[in-house]
Design a protein that fits this description.
Structural class: alpha/beta
Radius of gyration: 15 Å
Strand order of the largest sheet: 1-4-3-2
Order of helices and strands: EHEEEEHEEE
Number of domains: 2
Number of helices: 2
Oligomer: single chain
Number of strands: 8
Length: 126
C-alpha cells in the first residue's frame, strides 16, 4: 500500500540535530505525536507523519558504524534553486545527478547521523 514512515533512534543531542536537518533542509514540520515512553518527534509532510525520531534509552548503545544494506531515503521536493542555496549556506556537501531518461534531478547528501538522503525534484523544477 505504500511506505508509512522512517524511524531514526538517537541520543537527545543528535535527535535534535536530526529534527533541525529534516525540518530546515528537507522541509518537514514537527507535528503531533502519541505519548510514547521515550522522547521524540514526528515530522510531517502534507499532513502525514513520515519521519519518526525517537530518543534512545540512557544505557542503549547504537552502532552508527554497522554495515547494512540501507543506502538512502528519498523525498519528493520542489524549489531546487532555493534548496541548493540553503545547502550551500549550511555548508552541506551534496551530489547532483539526473534520473536517466527523465528531467528529474536528484540531490544526494547525508543527514547529521550519516544516513543517506535523496532530494528529488520534478523536471519542471530541475
Amino acid at each position: 500500500m505504500g511506505l508509512n514512515h522512517l524511524n531514526l533512534r538517537a541520543p537527545r543531542e543528535l535527535l535534535d540535530e536530526l529534527k533541525e536537518f529534516y525540518c530546515d533542509v528537507v522541509g518537514l514540520q514537527v507535528g503531533p505525536r502519541p505519548p510514547f515512553r521515550n522522547f521524540g518527534y514526528w515530522l510531517y509532510a502534507e499532513g502525514k507523519p513520515i519521519v519518526h525520531l525517537y530518543q534512545t534509552d540512557p544505557d542503549e548503545e547504537r552502532d552508527a558504524r554497522a554495515v547494512t544494506t540501507f543506502d538512502h531515503v528519498a523525498f519528493d521536493c520542489t524549489n531546487r534553486a532555493e534548496v541548493e542555496v540553503l545547502l550551500a549556506r549550511r555548508k552541506l556537501h551534496y551530489r547532483a545527478t539526473e534520473v536517466p531518461g527523465t528531467q528529474r534531478v536528484q540531490l544526494f547528501l547525508k543527514d547529521p547521523a550519516g544516513n543517506g538522503v535523496e532530494l528529488i525534484f520534478p523536471g519542471c523544477d530541475a
